[in-house]
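Dear Dr. H.,

I hope your travels went smoothly. While you were away I took the liberty of generating a structure for the chain from your last submission, since the lab meeting agenda had it listed for discussion. I wanted you to have the full record in hand beforehand rather than looking at slides cold. The sequence, exactly as received, is reproduced here:
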Amino acid sequence: MKAVIQRVQSANVKIEGQTVGSIGQGLLILLGVANGDSENKVGILAEKILKLRIFSDENGKMNRSVLDVGGEVLVVSQFTLLANCRHGNRPDFLESAPPQLANRLYELFKERIRQSVEKTECGVFGADMQVTLVNDGPVTILLDTEALKKK
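The corresponding predicted structure, in token form, is as follows:
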């Protein structure tokens, strides 16, 4: 699994002009599911994101998590995070999981986040979405479960 985590002042996702998810201060998570991903990786990634200390404390240091600050979360599925651009100029997406697996793990990821963050909003799997955000900092972090494996 791959994720782009952005600390935001606000974010929303629309489909055909209708807002389907909207948050204030918190995290926008763009989530890509790869071939071979599993429920175990869902837990590893969700736990890491929830504990990331990327919000400022009283001294202005990034020392607080989204849980510490009572932040909100917007999760949006994004298979293009698995783009392979090694050959030519047109990316292929062969590393992304088939839709049935990707949707199942996306749903599990959302539920895992919801267990800890009361206001968790979401996009719609497979939909053409427009995401608007006000990046705070800016703070943007890339995570890949392959790099998070326990040694």
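Two observations you may find useful: The first strand starts at residue 2 and ends at 15. Strands lie at 2-15, 18-23, 26-32, 55-56, 62-64, 72-77, 120-122, 130-144.

With kind regards,
E. W.
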